[in-house]
Amino acid sequence: MAGLNLRFTEEELDALRERAAAEGRSMQAFAHDAVISAVNEHSRLFNEAADHVLKASAELNRRLA
Questions:
Q1: CA-CA distance, 49 to 57, in Å (whole number)?
Q2: Does 46 reside within a domain?
Q3: Residue 42 placed within a domain
Q4: How many angstroms separate the CA atoms of 4 and 36, rounded?
Q5: Backbone dihedral region of 5: left (phi > 0), alpha (psi from -120 to 50 degrees) or beta?
Q6: pTM for the whole structure
Q7: What's the angle, vertex CA 41, arms to CA 3 and CA 54, rounded to 5?
Q8: What is the count of structural domains for the chain?
Q9: Whether pLDDT at 2 is above 90
Q10: pLDDT in tens, 41-63
Q11: How many CB atoms lie within 10 A of CB 20?
């Protein structure tokens, strides 16, 4: 499995440690899930924007075809 090293400030590490502990999870699992969630959210927002553009330009695209 590939790895990734991330650097955090002491304050960021403290916040990460606290959130992970509050959820009863390891820092690694908490950070991993947060990154995956961010990637998925970015993909979702991109897809929503693409759908919006396609719908908004559908009539123009029809006339240009």
A1: 12
A2: yes
A3: yes
A4: 13
A5: beta
A6: 0.67
A7: 130
A8: 1
A9: no
A10: 999 999 999 999 999 898 888 88
A11: 18
